[in-house]
Amino acid sequence: MTLHHLLFPFLILTSSAASSLSATVKDQTLNTQDANLFNPKLPPRTLSSSKKFEGSSEIVDIRYHMGPVLSSSPINIYLIWYGKWSVSQKFIIKDFINSISPSAAPPSPSVSDWWKTVSLYTDQTGANVSRAVVIAKEHSDSAYSHGSHLTRLSVQQVISTAVGAAPFPVDHRNGIYLILTSHDVTVQDFCRAVCGFHYFTFPSMVGHTLPYAWIGNSGKQCPEVCAYPFAVPGYMGGGGPGALVPPNGDVGLDGMISVIAHELAELTTNPLVNAWYAGEDPTAPTEIGDLCEGLYGTGGGGGYIGQVMRDRRGKTYNMNGNKGRKFMVQWVWSPVLKACAGPNALD
Is there a domain that residue 10 lies in? Predict the structure, then answer.
């Protein structure tokens, strides 16, 4: 989701390489020893019409527009914790990011398997999006240096402050600047139109052009919008299916994980908004996460999120990560299959 993208009703608000992906999707063995598969039907949100595609589709014209992708290894993520964050909250998010390129492979289906689809995207030289993603540095802005309400422009000022104070370098080639705002920080259009966005910084604001993404913790502000399907709209009352139990026990944080995944997938394949997207308007492109919003497993669509797993404690997830973590992450569009793809696919 770029700076201008709106929310959609089923999600929060997304050669040798071809052979590798085919094997991943086709031969994937789900580790369901301690889990049951199920495909819950949940009420859609009411914000706008869905753009997701459950299966392969020839009408999706996602094209390459000759811009760069993040192909240099490793991709360095510079984390800015804006506001008040607990140690446990930070661990959940960092464990997810570190699950993209784990030191030891977790059981399948895994977050690193999910990233294989993202890494199929190439630039004009044929270089793929890097498979290596690391947290390079962290910066805590617990003093709310730009207040407890941020605009789209002041989000860039948060980056400028971090770069200017020198906790972060200027990393043009490999860097992603990831701003995460705590539950008590309001952001322009948050909950109303976006749960996260990515873009690039303006030289006039930061002094450099740097790819960045922002995601907010919706736990206290709008979990039914940005932490779906772990929270459902209040209008449901006592009727209809309830929200799913989050895998890490934190509705806001578990909801953030899928939005972070969505933005990282799009930021690496379209960092300057001139690489991979569908549509003719680069100011409002449809990107690889947008095409699969609300889809978490095989059989999704029509209000169903797809086949996911539920463990013995009732917690719902579709991917394994580092340190025994489990996550619920939306699928992304595959340029090879021309369909939404995820490591927990059953077909």
Answer: no
